[in-house]
Write a structure and sequence with these properties.
Amidase signature (AS) enzymes, 11-stranded mixed sheet, single chain, globular
């Protein structure tokens, strides 16, 4: 018996659902494989290939407009390759595969496909997911979504397809629910169709680091002690995400308690190399084209370093620029919420929608974005500095950076960091461990044997930290802003590497944050751009740093540098 599926198709469809169902027949005729089309009923017969790559799927009735008889049926679990009754107008059996589920499902036939590796339905058209969609810059995607040239469902399904194809290798996600994603996307498409105002992030998928609370969604903080933890309320940053129209796409992997103990994520450029941390999943998901945007946190170098290692843009704003309420607190003096994107325009789009504090607090997100993306009236002055630890930098990095500086020509000047920064790494470590001992003591008491060695050692050290040592480190931190004023009086931004070199081989360490921690300590905004490549083909980031509160100007400078490099084909 041939594989068949029977559906209802009125001769003169009137309702929207009926018109969509009719469109299925029209499209299927173009593809071929229809055995009969009769008034009221159409029966498709199509041979379905089976083989490697066919996966289990989940199909759910969802046809209140034109299939009332199905409304009482419970969701049915089917497996690709099975014979399953999968019809609306009759009981014709179908051998289930990605193609059949998609061709005869979705909005048109009243079946919502929740998992699909190959093809899917969008509205009343049927097409394979465009694998390039999630890799487009976020500003372009925003414009397409706002005009209706791209639907939120279409983009979401392209991202889901990429995740399903690559997650087994990259392991960027700790929680992901395709059904929940599609429900969000459908609501956003309905909102646009209604003519109501759209948010600045309308329809854009955003990954959220798993130390950021999400209501009703597990937030495990990368720690077995928090297994099963489900927050009752969203963190402030998630509230702002949703209010801006973004799709909360899932929870991305973090190192244990956002510290140094690695988790499972691999670098998309070479799975044998670290993706960096602690925001490893957010960086890897954007770099691999699973999503265009993500959120992370930085206490040392946990946004800028993984972005550099994974070859994307990572932006750490000024301290307190984005609310930390509802985010796992490791160090109140250092913790900063940051963002990931493929380019500085995307980073600016996401960050300006999330800003609450220091950068231009009176401005709207649209006004902030306009400032961040505005053309400069003159080339910026960039001050190159040799950071503490420069002598430890990879030789390939030093050579690539020297060549890059030469290409930039006269817009780069040399500058020296004030001597006080020579002690910043040690003082930052004191603050980090002392405050970590305070906030993480409960984890030590709940089960020290369940913590990784670096986490446990840091908590224990923090609990033993002398008060005078901690207070001296805080005094050092307070002095850094004033110490930088003479440098920023000469330049628009500091130019320096984002890491010691490309991502190190091995997954036992997330790399060294020596080139990032001093900027976290100073509270300054910092952004890395993927502009250099090591001899082994791995990316290396170029870091720009601005004065505290100068986030928008730094983003504008980053965009200028990005556009310059792209225009020159470098």
């Amino acid at each position: 018996m041939p594989d068949t599926l029977t559906v209802t198709c009125p001769m003169r469809p009137a309702k929207p659902a009926q018109r969509r169902a009719a469109a299925v027949f029209s499209h299927a005729q173009q593809l071929g494989g229809i055995s009969a089309v009769r008034p009221g009923i159409g029966q498709f017969c199509r041979r379905i290939p089976q083989g490697p790559g066919e996966m289990d799927g989940h199909v759910q009735p969802n046809a209140p407009e034109h299939s009332r008889q199905q409304a009482s049926q419970a969701p049915r679990r089917v497996h690709f390759g099975d014979i399953a009754p999968c019809s609306l107008g009759g009981q014709g059996p179908v051998r289930v595969s990605p193609a059949t589920i998609d061709m005869y499902s979705g909005f048109a036939l009243g079946w919502r496909k929740l998992s699909y590796p190959d093809t899917h339905s969008i509205g009343h058209t049927f097409m394979t997911p465009d694998p390039q969609l999630p890799t487009l810059d976020a500003v372009d995607l925003r414009d397409r979504l706002a005009t209706g040239a791209l639907s939120a469902v279409e983009l979401a399904r392209a991202c889901i397809a990429r995740i399903e194809a690559r997650e087994a290798e990259i392991e960027a996600w700790v929680w992901f629910d395709a059904e929940a994603v599609l429900q969000q996307a459908e609501r956003l498409d309905s909102l646009r169709a209604s003519g109501d105002p759209l948010g600045p992030l309308h329809g854009l998928p955003v990954g959220v680091k798993d130390v950021i609370d999400t209501a009703g969604v597990p937030t495990r903080n990368g720690c077995p002690i928090d297994a099963g933890r489900v927050p009752q309320a969203d963190a402030d940053v998630v509230v702002r995400l949703k209010a801006a129209g973004a799709i909360m796409f899932g929870k991305t992997v973090t190192t244990e308690l956002a510290f140094l103990h690695p988790n499972k994520t691999r670098n998309p450029h070479n799975p044998r190399h670290t993706p960096g941390g602690s925001s490893s999943g957010s960086a890897a998901a954007v770099a691999d084209g699973m999503i265009p945007l993500a959120i992370g946190t930085q206490t040392g170098g946990s946004v800028v370093r993984p972005a550099s290692f994974c070859g994307i843009t990572g932006f750490k704003p000024s301290l307190h620029a984005i609310s930390r309420h509802g985010v796992l607190m490791q160090s109140h003096s250092l913790d900063t919420v940051g963002v990931f994107a493929r380019d500085p325009g995307g980073a600016a789009l996401l960050a300006t929608a999330l800003f609450e504090g220091r950068p231009t607090p009176a401005a709207s997100s649209a006004e902030r974005l306009h400032t961040a993306l505005a053309d400069r009236d003159r080339p910026p002055v960039l001050a190159f500095v040799e950071l503490p630890g420069w002598d430890r930098a990879d030789r390939a990095l030093r050579e690539a950076f020297a060549a890059f500086r030469a290409q930039l020509g006269g817009c780069v000047i040399d500058a020296d960091l004030p001597g006080v920064f020579g002690e910043s790494a040690a003082h930052r470590a004191v603050i980090n461990t002392a405050e970590m001992g305070h906030y993480y003591r409960r984890y030590l008491e709940a089960g020290a044997d369940k913590l990784g060695p670096p986490t446990r050692a840091a908590i224990e050290e923090g609990l033993q930290m002398p008060a005078h040592t901690y207070l001296a480190a805080l005094a050092h931190q307070d002095a850094l802003g004033a110490a930088l004023e003479p440098v920023f009086a000469r330049c628009d931004a500091i130019l320096c590497p984002a890491a010691l070199g490309p991502a190190p081989e091995g997954l036992g360490s997330t790399g060294d944050s020596i080139f990032n921690g001093l900027w976290t300590m100073a509270g300054t905004p910092a952004i890395t751009l993927p502009l250099l490549t090591a001899p082994n083909g791995l990316p290396m980031g170029v870091q720009l740093v601005g004065p505290v509160g100068g986030d928008l100007q730094l983003l504008r400078t980053a965009r200028w540098l990005w556009d310059l490099v792209q225009a020159n084909g470098a």
